[in-house]
Amino acid sequence: xxxxxxxxxxLSPADLKQVMDxxxxxxxxEYPDTFIVPTxxxxxxxxxxxxxxxxxxxxxxxxxxxxxxxxxxxxxxxxKLREFMRLIEGIIQSKPEYSQLPPIQGGYI
Length: 109
Known about the structure:
By secondary structure, the protein is an alpha+beta fold.
């Protein structure tokens, strides 16, 4: 398996606006610091699963949010966070710096 690769990378003001607009749309700042999806009556657990740690700061707000996305159910807050992550991933993957990275090497046993 390969090691980590680190590159200098900065989002443009337009990208940052898009991210902030989505944060406001989904009520990101109202989420608890540790978001746990309620299992409810119907749920499935997945492994491996993505884990996220958000640290957001601007002149007025500071927000820390962690989330382990191991529960699949119809929770609207989780769906909104997944949508938010897809936006961020899409922005990053659209940049030339991303396409110039070496291929991902890894696995799960």
